[in-house]
Amino acid sequence: MKHSLQFGRLRVRPDGMRAVQALLTVLFLLFSGCGPASPRDGKVHLVVTLPADQLTKPIYETVVTDFERRHPNIAVELISIPRDYYGKVLVMIAGRDAPDLMWMGQGFTEFATRGVFLDISERLAAEVDMKEFLPQALSWYRIAGKQYGVPFGVDMEFIVYNKALFDRAAVPYPSDDWDVWELLEKAKKLTKDLDGDGRTDQYGFRGRIDPSAFGAEILARDGSRALCNSPEMIECLKFNLDLVFKWKVAPLPDEMDQEGLDDYAIFRQGRAAMMKMYTWNLPFLRKRCGDVDWDIVCSPKARQPGRWASSQAVLISADTRHPDEAWLLCREFFGDTFMEAMASRGLPPNLRVAREYIARNRQRPANLAALLKGAGSLHPFPRVPHLNELLAHYWAAVSAVYAQRATPEEAMARAEKEIRRAVARQRRRKAR
Amino acid sequence: MTIHRRRNLTGFLFLAPNLFGFMVFTAVPVGAAFALSLFQWDLFHPPRFVGLQNFVDLLGWFRDAEGRHLADPRFWKYLWNTLFLMTAIPIQMGASLFLAIVLNQKIRGRVLFRTVFYLPTVCAGVGIMLLWMWIYNPEFGLFNTVIKAVVDFFNAGTARLAHLLPGVSVRPLAAPHPTWLKGYHWAKPSLMIMRVWGGMGGTSMILYLAGLQGISPELYEAAEIDGAGPWQRFRHITLPMLTPTTFFIFITSVIGGFQGGFDAAYVMTRGGPDGATTTISYYIFNHAFRWFNMGYAAAIAVVLFFIVFAVTLVNWKYGGRKVNYL
Amino acid sequence: MRIGKKPRLSRTRRRRIAHALSYAFLATVGVTMIAPFLWMLLTSLKSPEADVLDLKRLLPDGIHLENYRRVVLELNFARVLLNSVLVTFCVTAGQVLTSSLAAFAFARLKFFARDKIFLGYLGTLMIPGAVTMIPVFLLLRQLGWINSYKALIIPGMFSAYGTFMLRQFFMTIPKEIEEAAVIDGCSTLGIYWHVILPLSKPGLSALAILTFMGSWRSFMWPLIVTHKPEMFTLPVALASFQEMYGVQWTLLMAGSVIMILPMLLVFIVGQRYFIEGIQLGAVKG
């Protein structure tokens, strides 16, 4: 390769000098001016992190604005984190830039076992009537007798169904106390090849039954053991496989396990008569499926009622420099106003608020009370450290089952072994 | 001041800014990574020295009633993924070479073609990945839509034919429905296709073009007089003359390949389905920034370092003579 | 020898056929390269309510800029673009400056342990970024730089590769020019600034372009060191945008177009430098 060399062209290059100057100036400005904003307005500054969500952000903003109006000495900054929420919050805490309050969902335990949150048991006992709350929802935020937070919403699964398709097939609507066999019977009647090309255009059911309905567990409640290699779990996996391959009432795993699939479009277009959805889907169902006559019903029981659930709360950081102010703000996030505003996407754990909201509800779903009925048999993941890492083994095995790369027995035996090993490794590390 | 010391001072003054950055952001961190790999640290509790335990957990195996098991089977799987994805490198290099040879003729619009081929390289990044996510979408992506359209067209044609010939019934073909990024076995080839598409007209093609232009036409003329056909000329002139270029592209791609795959895994597949597209770098990221295992992540990085080191050494031993760096 | 086995086409005709085939091939490849981009553009112009499932209508129903409007608003686009431009500019300028200084020292000055240090630089060329990533992150955390421009820019300002490449380039500049300058009373800094740099424009622009491209699309590092949306660079912002609007392809494609556009403009304007730069990037002594 040849370089074009220009001999004898010796010129001073003032523009080069200017570029260097510009660079240095920019760097100076950037690094001198843009440190962490140090508030000088005499107010107490609180930073709250929450996962970015265009629909809920205004709700948070309303609460915060109202709060700031009532507490003129406190300024609140909301940071919405669009992706990898827990990782980012971890980095903030580890980077000694911990937010004063943080939204938490399933990741709570990972953080709590590392001493990230402020114990609010005493404040709660003194100031809040805890009897109104769903006891289960409270216990999720209690570790070793210490209460770290109060949820503002309970997430759970339910079945959403398209009434028009039921009417057309003359199938009676499901009821909240139905079981999986009833679901299967209905699904069989609702699975149709409408254009006769040999391919199913309308599936009876799209989704999978949660293991808890079969009485199966993934992990022991204390995280010490894997329980996934149980007859109940295998029965559940087989049932879900049979839905697809034996009874052919559910779409192939390939068609179900895709990210970026528009479930609402599928439901709206009548490509599934019943679908498993979650409370956070509700606002979208209302918005996107307005032209469909739909309702919800509790997810069916198999051996026992059981449904997957999770919850959300805003918790106070143990590192906050303003615990009293943070507590004031924290109360707003499980107060009636906020909880009610959030009720369109989850069940308020304050049962009084929940009943009032459901009684007042005039929009779809008509059977919103299903959530309240379902609240008796919620089945969240156990709150154990390294939950995600342990669950990852289980998920890998489950997806191998649905992709038919392993039988349920093989996959669950493998998952059990891997989880056992992971637990042993953690124990060994702790012991050292 | 002696001339000697003055010279040293001047030299180091020029070197200083870069050397400082080099020490702070490369040399010391490499050492730190080695040190960190001997610790267990979740960023919350103080780091704890565990000796080589991280490496035992990573590379070792253990025995139980059912036999011998790898301590961290995921690592080996992800290493395999990384290697699998790297098989795109020779494919892409071959495509680049072919393009370069075709482009190297006296053709009008060469610059235009070269520009167009280079587009994917210029635009590479998250934007392109989102585009490909859509192209690959099994439900309504470009590929499956086109496949379906072609099959439908074919079916319509055969149906019409069957209509003309009474007594003949034709079963319509079912359109193949590859799941691309969502399928366990499809995901890696999908990423490779994207990579070959994005890379074949890129840097390596430009380098090959430059290499081709450096081959003197007399060589070809002489060979032609000797009766060498196009293939022989390619085999005995073009390829050997391009060896330095090939070697350069190969070695840089291999080094890059071992640490690659993060962006695509993060943006397009989250490392799935079932870890099919998780590469070593994504695994490191997960351990460090999602699972709170800084020490373990550092241990994986150290192992990666040794792998790259060994591979580069082998590369140099067998190909290094052909390129002169110093 | 195949003469006699079959009638040979005349030389010119054969050449013409080969030419036509080449054109057809190149055109096909060209279309494959461009088609996805066109599709992306077309989709981004469809109305957000358009049923993307309906692919029979490939062309948008009129030009809708709503997608772009929403992306610009919701991506906090102005800020994110500013971040990207700023970071890319500083990293590029910084890297060219520090690398050229060091390369000058390695190529033209004699000092203690010069070649040993240079060998050390060469050795680090193959160190995977993942190795240094965690310690550098921990260092920045210690300094309190996480989520700042400092974290985005400073670690990127130094490059062993850039130094190596420019050194190779500087070595090709004849010593005589330098000597003439020394006789004219030029200082070492003067030689660097007035002699070497002006003569190395192709090398410098090559490094600048490579750094520019790398920094503009850099994803992992900004992802690790930023967490507030106002510090995101374009790729990180776009990836998070994808998380929020996973199924709204018209929006996503508009975002992608926006991300690609600046790079494309730079490429079209400085095309010649790009190609030269790539070739120089692979310096072979």
Q: How do the helices and strands line up, and which of them pair or pack?
A:
The complex is a heterotrimer of chains A (432), B (326) and C (285).
Chain A lengths: L13 H20 L10 E8 L5 H14 L3 E8 L3 H10 L6 E4 L3 H5 L8 H7 L7 H5 L2 E2 L2 E2 L3 E12 H6 L11 H11 L12 E4 L24 H15 L7 H4 L6 H6 L3 E7 L3 H7 L5 E4 L9 E10 L6 H10 L3 H7 L8 H10 L8 H6 L3 E2 L7 H16 L5 H24 L1
Parallel strand pairs in A: 1-2, 1-3, 7-8, 10-11
Antiparallel strand pairs in A: 3-10, 4-5, 6-8, 6-9, 6-10
Helix pairs in contact in A: 17-18
Chain B lengths: L2 H34 L2 E2 L7 E2 L3 H7 L1 E4 L2 E4 L2 H14 L1 H16 L6 H14 L2 H11 L5 H23 L22 H13 L3 H11 L3 H9 L4 H12 L1 H16 L3 H8 L10 H10 L4 H26 L7
Antiparallel strand pairs in B: 1-2, 3-4
Chain C lengths: L10 H35 L20 H9 L2 H32 L5 H11 L4 H15 L5 H5 L6 H12 L3 H9 L4 H12 L1 H17 L2 H6 L8 H11 L4 H21 L1 H11 L4
Helix pairs in contact in C: 1-13, 2-13, 3-7, 3-10, 4-7, 8-9, 10-14, 12-13
Protein described:
The complex is a heterotrimer of chains A (432), B (326) and C (285). Chain A is an alpha/beta fold. Chain A has 18 helices and 11 strands. Chain A has 2 domains: 44-155 and 310-379, D-Maltodextrin-Binding Protein, domain 2 (3-Layer(aba) Sandwich), CATH 3.40.190; 156-309 and 381-431, D-Maltodextrin-Binding Protein, domain 2 (3-Layer(aba) Sandwich). In chain A, strands 1, 2, 3, 6, 7, 8, 9, 10 and 11 form a 9-stranded mixed β-sheet that branches. Chain A has a two-stranded antiparallel ribbon with strand order 4-5. The longest helix of chain A is centred in the last third of the chain and has 24 residues, at 408-431. Chain A is globular, with a radius of gyration of 26 Å. Chain A starts with 13 loop residues before the first helix and ends with a helix. With 326 residues, chain B is mainly alpha-helical. The longest helix of chain B has 34 residues, at 3-36. Chain B is globular. Chain C is an all-alpha fold and 285 residues long. Chain C has 2 domains: 11-67; 74-281, Orthogonal Bundle (MetI-like fold). In chain C, helix 2 crosses helix 13, helix 4 packs across helix 7 and helix 12 packs antiparallel against helix 13. The longest helix of chain C is centred in the N-terminal third of the chain and has 35 residues, at 11-45. Chain C is flat, with a radius of gyration of 25 Å. The mean pLDDT of chain C is 82. Chains in contact: A-B, A-C, B-C. Chains B and C meet through helix 1, helix 4, helix 5, helix 6 and helix 9 of B and helix 1, helix 3, helix 4, helix 5 and helix 10 of C.
